[in-house]
Amino acid sequence: MEIRARKSCKVVSDVRARANTKGGRVALRGKGCVVFVLLALGLAGCNPFSLATGHISGPVSTGGPVSTGPTGTLPTPTTGPIGTLPTPTTGPTGTLPTPTTGPTGTPPTPTTGPTGTSPTPTTGPTGTEWACIVSGAHGKCPKGLDYDDTADITNSNGYNTYVGNNCWADPSCVQTLSANSPQDWQVTSTQPAGNTSVKTGPELQQQMDDWCPAKDNWAIFVAHGCPDGQEDVPIASLNTLTSSYSEFMPHNSQTVAEAAYDIWTNYPKDIMIWLDNVNRGSGGAKQIGTADIDGQDFTVYQNKGPGGEIIFSLDGAGGTGTFANQASGTVNILGVLDWVQSHGYVSNITVSLIDFTFEICSTGGVPESFGVSSYSLTATAG
Asked: Of 151, 213, 337, 365, which has the fewest beta carbons less than 10 angstroms from its beta carbon?
C-alpha cells in the first residue's frame, strides 16, 4: 500500500433499550348496590366490593368495619370518574413489569445492516460496548488524544498511537472501525466481488519520529525534554525492534486480502511484511530474493521496479513463492530492515512509522470482519 491517512475523528454509537409500562382500569360491577367507604353504610342484601375479583361479595355488618381487599386496605382513588377503580401502576407483585428481552436476558444484537452497507458492530469480543466506532473514510480511534500504551508499545506516549479506518482507495468507505485499544479492534468491510487491487487499509499506526538523538533514546524516557529536538529513529541506534500480534480474518474463496506490517522509512516507498495471505498472491510484484529472518523464511518481492515497494512475504508450507496463513506470531522487524540495508536498497535507515494493517481488495460484495486481539511493539535502544 502506498498511500496513508494520518489523523481524523471518530463517531461513537450508543444503543439503549427502553420499556413502557401499561396499567389497566377495572370497572365497579355491583348489582344495584353502591359502597360509600367514608359513610360505611350497610344495606341489607348488598355486599362490599372485592378488589381481587371486581365483584361484590360477603355481608356488611351494620355499623361495623368495611371488608377490604387482599392487602387489608382499600386504595384511595386519585383519578378517574366515580364508579371506576384507579389505574394500577405496578405489576401483580407490586413491581414494574419486566421488559421482554432476548434469549440471554439482553436485547438481541442485530448481526447485519441495511442492504449495501456494512453493519455497525455494537459490542466488542467480550460482549461490552466498543469505546470507539467510526465509519468515515479517514476516521480514527480514539477521539482526542491518542492511546497511551507503554505497557505494550515502547514509545507510545498518548500522541503517536492510534487506529485508522483508512479507506484510501474507497471514497464511499463501506467500512466500520470499532476499537477498544491497540490490542482490541476490528473493521467490518464490504468490498466488490472479484476485485484484486487494494481498496482499504485499516491499520494500527505507531509513529516512530520521537527519537532523541542527543540522549540516544526515546524522548519519553528523557527527563526535562529532548535538548536538540526529535527525529525518526535510526536502526543503528536500536538493539531490538520486534512485534507480536494475533489477528483474525476470513479464509474463503471470495476474500482477497492480507494481514501485514507496513513500515515507512527513508527508503522511497514502504517496506511490508505479509503474514496471512488470502488469495492475494504476490500482488503483481516481482521476486528479488529470499530471506531467513530469525528462522522464518520469506520470499522478497519488489513492486513496480527499482525504488518500488519491497514486500517480505512469509513462506507457506510449500516453501519459496508460496504464501503463509499465520494468524499470530512474532516478527523481527529490525532483521527485515537490516536485510534491506545490507542488500543495498537504502543506506542508514531511519524509521518514521510502523503500521499493522489489513489490505482489503474484496469481500465478495458482502460484509466481512477483520480484527486484532493482541499486539505489542518493542523497540529498545542499543
From this structure: 151
What kind and span of H or E run contains 335?
helix 333-342
Contact predicate 349/331, CB 8 Å: no
Rounded to whole angstroms, the Cα distance separating 36 from 22 reads 28
Cell output for 193: 466481488
Q: What is the three-class DSSP state of 288?
A: strand
Question: Where do the DSSP E strands lie in 303-382?
Answer: 310-314, 328-332, 350-363, 368-381
Question: What's the CA gap between 293 and 364, in Å, rounded?
Answer: 34
Domains and CATH numbers, the chain: 24-95 (no CATH), 132-381 (2.60.120.180)
Query: How big, in percent rounded to 5, are the helix, strand and coil portions of the chain?
Result: 5, 35, 60
Tell me which residue has cell 540522549: 215
C-alpha radius of gyration, the chain, whole number: 34
Tens-digit pLDDT profile for residues 60-108: 334 444 344 444 444 444 444 434 444 444 444 444 444 444 434 444 3
Contact of 326 with 314, CB cutoff 8 Å: yes
Taking residue 58's Cβ as centre, other Cβ atoms within 10 Å add up to 10
The span from the CA of 167 to the CA of 173, in Å, is 6
CA distance 262 to 206: 10
Q: Cα dist. 29→35, 105, 264 in Å?
A: 11, 40, 84
Give mean pLDDT, residues 274-299: 97
Could you give the CA distance from residue 114 to residue 117 in angstroms, rounded to a whole number? 6
